[in-house]
Design brief:
mainly alpha
Amino acid sequence: MAKKISGFQRYMMVCPLPNLIMFVVLNVKILFLVGRGHGGTRGK
């Protein structure tokens, strides 16, 4: 039985660039949150 794949899912499989961009953006946001002293051990 073949699985139904929507056009968007096929696009995401063929072109992983948008997925990669989202991954990088999320990592940058997390780095900014952690780097600003949000739970860091740095003194003020």
